[in-house]
Amino acid sequence: MSYSKEELKDIEFRIIAEIENTQEIVEKFRELTKPIAPENAIGRVSRMDAINNKSVNEATLNKAVQKLKNLEIAVTKINEPDFGKCRSCYNQIPIRRILLLPQITICVNCASKL
């Protein structure tokens, strides 16, 4: 069983919207992860907090960049016959899961085994 044309249009719309949203997140976190200039007069504790926050923001940025890559791959594969099939068990991923997480390539059952 594969998705209908209407479902594929809904999925493609969702992927494109999610790409736009994720691009905004990536840009936001790129700004937040810029180096902290040493000439900024902040106290030692404040500098340590800023460095810690930068590390957290870098981790978030990396996740967002990976999500963006996966979304861009998904939108290019939407018309392929195996789109929406679990890469582990090869069963069709339910449409609700694809709409919720359009970059996903694995079904719930297989994901729970990881």
How does this structure look, described?
The chain has 114 residues and is mostly helical. It has helices at 5-32, 44-77, 95-100, 108-113. It has a domain at 5-83. It has four helices and no strands. The model has no long low-confidence stretch (mean pLDDT 90).
Describe the secondary structure blueprint for this structure.
Blueprint: H1 5-32, H2 44-77, H3 95-100, H4 108-113
Quick take:
The chain has helices at 5-32, 44-77, 95-100, 108-113. It has 114 residues and is an all-alpha fold. Helix 1 packs antiparallel against helix 2.
Give the SSE string: HHHH
Q: Radius of gyration, Cα only, in angstroms?
A: 19 Å
The biggest sheet, with number of strands, parallel, antiparallel or mixed sense and barrel status, is: none
Shape field: elongated
Our estimate of the beta-strand percent is: under 5%
Query: Structural class of the helix and strand makeup?
Result: mainly alpha
* Strand segment count: 0
Distance between the termini: 25 Å
Q: Summarize model confidence as the mean pLDDT.
A: 90
Which stretches are poorly predicted, pLDDT < 50 over at least 5 residues? none
**Total helical elements:** 4
Characteristic terms for this protein:
4 helices, 65% helix
